[in-house]
Amino acid sequence: MFRDHVKLAFKNLRHRITRSFLTLLGIAIGIMAIISLMALGEGMQQAITGELSSLSDSIIVSIGGGVFSSFSGSSSVGEYLTERDITDIERIQGIKDISTQLSGSALAEYNGETTIVSLTGMDINVMMIQFGSTSLEAGSFLVDGEQNNIMVGYSIAHETFDHDITVGSRIKISGEKFFVTGIFAYQGIGSLTSADSI
Asked: Cα-Cα-Cα-Cα dihedral of 169, 173, 178, 181, to 10°?
């Protein structure tokens, strides 16, 4: 019985050689296509991963929240990384260096006017890395050891209040006095590290 089936199969293959060949060819092409697509996908994934890795070796972690002071004088603080969090992150394998930055909003008072402004606090070294190549309209960058000194962006200096802020101006932020040591030059929307609104 089995031999009869085998003989019949070979007989059909001989009589329908063209159809048999086309069937085998289709199966072979299908298998090759699947293997090629898998190889192409894997290659593209590795290429994209390599390109992204070469662009930057920095990872930015954003917690959200920040500091906000209302017109009534009350303030609330959002979540932020604690010293313990930073120590834990430093222990992670592959971490070479870590720096922190705190952003939020607060109530600012200048020349009798009051408004809410965006604030960014960071280490001096981090500031120089991020904004060191940014032009200044006036004044100078902050230096280590300075107390209650700030730098302001172009928009804050010239568009936020009725009177322009100048180097040496005194601004109250959440009731505390700060002195302006530098004003960033206009950067525009296209700048990667625009300091116009800080």
From this structure: -60
Residue carrying the six token digits 């800080």: 198
Distance CA 7, CA 13 (A): 10
| DSSP type of residue 168 | T
6-60 pLDDT, tens digit each: 777 777 767 777 777 788 888 999 999 999 999 998 888 887 776 666 555 666 6
pTM of the model: 0.51
Give every CB contact of residue 186 below 8 A, 6+ residues apart in sequence: 137, 154, 196
Cβ contacts of 136 within 8 Å, gap of 6 or more: 182, 183, 184, 185
Which stretches within the chain are classed as H helix? Answer: 2-15, 17-55, 83-90, 124-131, 154-158
Q: CB of 95 within 8 A of CB of 158?
A: no
Q: Counting beta carbons within 10 angstroms of the beta carbon of residue 197, is it exposed (0 to 12), middle (13 to 18) or buried (19 or more)?
A: middle
